[in-house]
Amino acid sequence: MKRLAILGFHKIGDSPADWDSWFYIPERTFAGHLSCLKDEGWPVIDLEAFLRGLGAPETLPERSALLTFDDGYRSIREVALPWLVRFGYPGVMFVPTDFIGGFNSFDGSNEPEEPICDWAELCELQRRGVSIQSHAASHRPFSKLDPAEQEREIVQSKAVLEAQLGAAVEVLAYPYGDPGADPGRLQLALKHAGYRAAFLYGGGLARLPAEDPYVLPRVAMGPDTDLKAELRGDCH
Fold first, then answer.
1. CATH number where 148 lies
2. Coil/strand/helix, residue 156
3. Which is deepest, 80, 149, 212, 219, by most CB within 10 Å?
4. Domain region containing 108
5. Pick from 88, 86, 227, 101: which is nearest to 160 by CA?
6. How far is residue 163's CA from residue 174's CA, in Å, rounded to a whole number?
7. Measured between alpha carbons, how far is 156 from 97 in angstroms, rounded to an integer?
8. What totals of helices (H) and strands (E) does the chain contain, helices first?
9. Whole-number pLDDT of residue 235
């Protein structure tokens, strides 16, 4: 059984002074997370290695990490990417396609307004080792959508990303970590659409071979996350 730490980040950098949001990770803290993985002996793999490991876990190290970033925030290009390059680490960014080049209006008043990467920025991220994958189209919770709407979300987002970026889209992160009221039906739709895996938000370490690659847990990363404890599995 191989251990895989799938880390789920959102915004890297300082939150606005008048906000107290857990989803911002200061740059220094983020760099510390990357150092922790190196110091603790968790190799960071890319999406290709992850997908290969789904079917052939023996191709993976005994323990490894996959770095994922939700929502496509520009801070990932401006703040996180230089650190990823410095460490030589790849990543995966999940983008809601309706908001590319816009803002996180899907958060309403719950989070500060933040810019989402445009196509040129997504292309740059992809060139520099960050795979761009699906976070659906409208970022609505799947449990609030009927089956036809869910299918449109997963098919449309995949088609748009593949057409614009010229690379396969094979994994999805559920908006809000919500796999829908009928996860089994949605997973069949994902498989039919060509997705090979899908990610929740939270739940600790994953283990491969996976019982179900369409409900993979991730370590929810915030400014106070004790990554060493998470890697030991002490928190779950």
1. 3.20.20.370
2. helix
3. 80
4. 2-232
5. 101
6. 21
7. 9
8. 8, 10
9. 44
Q: Rounded mean pLDDT of 52-57?
A: 96
Considering only CA atoms, which of 141, 10, 153 is closest in space to residue 70? 10
| Residue 17's pLDDT band (cuts 50, 70, 90) | confident
Q: What are 11's two structure tokens?
A: 């915004």
User: Is the separation of the CB atoms in 154 and 189 below 8 Å?
Assistant: yes
CA distances for 220 relative to 6, 24, 114, 168, 207, angstroms: 9, 12, 20, 26, 16
Model pLDDT, residue 236: 42
Number of domains in the chain: 1
Predicted pLDDT of residue 234:
55
pTM for the structure as a whole? 0.97
pLDDT at 26 over 60: yes
What long-range pairs does 188-195 form, CB within 8 A, spacing at least 24? 189/147, 189/150, 189/151, 189/154, 190/154, 190/214, 193/151, 193/154, 193/155, 193/158, 194/158, 194/169, 194/170, 195/134, 195/154, 195/158, 195/169, 195/170, 195/171
Site of tokens 């189209």: 137
